[in-house]
Amino acid sequence: MGFLVNTLSILVVILAILFTVFVNYPEPPLSPLLYQWQSSGHYFHFKGYQVFYKDELSESAANDITVLSLHGFPTSSFDWYKILPDMRRNVRRFIAPDFLGFGLSDKPRFHSYSIVEQTDLIEELMMTLKVDTNVHILGHDYGDTVAQELMARQIDGNLSFRIASVCLLNGGIFPTIHKPILMQTLLRSPILGTILSKLSNYYMFSMALSGVFGPNSQPSRDDLHDFWKLIRQKDGYRVMGDILSYIDDRRQHEDRWVGALRTNQMPLHFIYGPSDPINRSPEFPNTYRKIIPNPSIDVLDDQIGHYPQLESHKRVIQLYLNWLKSRQFITQLVFNT
């Protein structure tokens, strides 16, 4: 009995020390790339909170396409930085927000985060920017689910803008086959999740994030630094467990959101990295082809994982823009050589 008490006492002391170290460990600085990303962005107010977004306009694009890019968990709009140069060359407007609780946006604590609220945020942003038509959604992960709710609202006739097409990257659009990683499962638990979120640090984060990338397309040290900086910004690491309620949202609204994919009349495409422990191959592409009528899907190299836009950005942007061209939304393409 004495041994157990002593062991528990030691563990409590160790946890207290770790908590003190991690809570007081200084936030990393903005890299030059992140500084440029932030300084060229904008903010708008949503429910009293500041929400960051990118709004890039191109005078050279020979079309009126607006691409709305919706990022995944736990990262931000910065996920799109590698494909942005080719976006600028080929589409008239590129809009990429940071959802509430992510990136450079506000991250309120003790907040009830939900996919429905994030979808309301997107509608508010589009109304603020006076965008109401020809919107082409490019989503990833968490952003896929927001896209599904946007599609459902358009089907219901309750969307404030018109979606012209949807292209999704790796995301848990089918809850029955979605496999959260261990860290996500732990962060969702009521007590352990609270402790883990407060003890979160660069090393834990980089190991967890690197684990969903393909074996030969790992994130660079610079990228990991920037991703962690954006999570540390405004103490975002403390709300990750709350944001993970989206996994429960997916199950609760499965009929509505999978139904939106199945019954929508707009062009729908998927670009899939098969080395993804969250949306596994061949189960995911097989399910997609089974559920989606006339399925349109590009499967990337076997080594590409959960973040195709970062792991194989040149191939992803080529596939996406060529798909838009095949649907006659774009007539000519210009790629960076």
From TrEMBL:
Q: What is its main location?
A: endoplasmic reticulum
Q: Which domain of life is it from?
A: Eukaryota
Q: Which GO terms describe its molecular function?
A: monoacylglycerol lipase activity
Sorted keywords for this record are: Endoplasmic reticulum, Hydrolase, Membrane, Transmembrane, Transmembrane helix
Q: Which InterPro entries match?
A: AB_hydrolase_1, AB_hydrolase_fold, AB_hydrolase_sf, Epox_hydrolase-like
Q: Which residues cross the membrane?
A: 7-25
Cited Pfam families: Abhydrolase_1
Q: Report the Gene3D superfamilies cross-referenced here.
A: alpha/beta hydrolase
Which BP terms does GO give this entry?
acylglycerol catabolic process
* Record localization: Endoplasmic reticulum membrane
Q: What name does the UniProt record give this protein? A: AB hydrolase-1 domain-containing protein
Residues covered by the AB hydrolase-1 domain: 66-311
Please name the source species: Oppiella nova
GO cellular component terms listed in the entry, alphabetical order: endoplasmic reticulum membrane
Q: How does it sit in the membrane?
A: Multi-pass membrane protein
